[in-house]
Amino acid sequence: MAGNSGQAGRRYSSTRPSLCYPSLNTQAAFRPALLSCCKLISVFPNADSDRLRVVLVAPRNPLNIGAAARAMSNFGFCHLRVVNPYELAFREARSAVGAERLLAQATEFKTVAEAVADCKLIVGTTAVGQRQLQHPVRRLDQGARLLRKSLTGSPVALLFGSEKRGLSNEDFSHCHWLLRIPTREEHRSMNLGQAVAVCLYELARDPQASVKLEKHVPATAADLERLTALLLDALRASGYLKPSPNSSQKRRTAAPTEQKIRRLVRRLHLSAPDAELTLGILRQIFWKLGSTKPPSSTAPL
């Protein structure tokens, strides 16, 4: 089943048709699409995703194999390797929605040594627990920085153990250091597919990337004053504000409320399009109610 020492691992093929492991001719047709997946590395400026090998060691659940492949496709990683899988699980993997091509190209190996032979950095994953480990253990956020740095220059293998026991001490002996996801002490272990997804997300994201905000063009003072005047007209028409008084004493009483409304409009920090939209809404309300808009608020934008 597995490739001999010194040879590349083999692609899995079945004697009967399979959703995830089609014929060799069909796999050949998939290769252009698989290469397009690998071109996604440009999305991640801090890591050359084409150099990462995700290695599943002795996986048993077909759903987890499929979930791992789907996570790889989600985050732009293309190379899945499987070591000594439970035969039925490997053949029946089905849940790689959108990642069937990637799963079809998964390479099977008999030993961890063969699976990581071309890699210069091998990192294992562990929940730690009660085990006495002989390797440095790094949190995911810390280890991901080192992985991204290594991926810029050489192939890297990231190992995940079986659902039942995780990676063995023998598996760890091939690793340079270990990685752990900082789960809570009372429940350390994660589902295999979830663990793959979390690790690949941390590798794929760019911690230095800044969010590109939409360009904000603020409304002019004239726009805001027209909006304020129309809003005050609406408040008077609704009875919230009293109609403009005649006496100076009443004007002094009403002024603070109008000033509060004016300050409120400016605290909204409206963009020019938003100010225009709000003016249009208020004008439509006046029109629908059959009111005549005062001259002070009808100036065009």
Task: Give me the secondary-structure topology.
Layout lengths: L9 E2 L12 H15 L13 E6 L4 H14 L3 E5 L3 H6 L7 H5 L2 E3 L2 H4 L5 E5 L11 E3 H12 L4 E5 L8 H4 L4 E4 L11 H13 L16 H18 L9 H20 L4 H17 L13
Helix pairs in contact: 2-8, 9-10, 9-11
C-alpha termini separation: 74 Å
Uncertain residue segments: 1-7, 12-31, 33-47, 297-301
Shape: elongated
Amount of helix: 40-55%
Largest sheet: 8 strands, mixed
Tally of individual helices: 11
- Count of individual beta strands: 8
CATH superfamily annotation of the largest domain = SPOUT methyltransferase, trefoil knot domain
Report the mean per-residue pLDDT as an integer. 79
**Widest β-sheet, arrangement of strands:** 1-4-3-2-7-5-8-6
Name the structural class: alpha/beta
Quick overview of this protein structure:
The protein is an alpha/beta fold. It is built from eleven helices and eight strands.
Description:
- This protein is of the alpha/beta class and 301 residues long.
- The protein folds into two domains: 10-204, SPOUT methyltransferase, trefoil knot domain (Alpha/beta knot), CATH 3.40.1280; 221-297, Helicase, Ruva Protein, domain 3.
- Helix content is 43%, strand content 11%.
- It has eleven helices and eight strands.
- It has helices spanning 24-38, 62-75, 87-92, 100-104, 112-115, 140-151, 169-172, 192-204, 221-238, 248-267, 272-288; strands at 10-11, 52-57, 79-83, 107-109, 121-125, 137-139, 156-160, 177-180.
- Strands 1-4-3-2-7-5-8-6 form an eight-stranded mixed sheet.
- α2 (62-75) packs parallel to α8 (192-204) and α9 (221-238) packs across α10.
- Mean pLDDT is 79; it is low at 1-7, 12-31, 33-47 and 297-301.
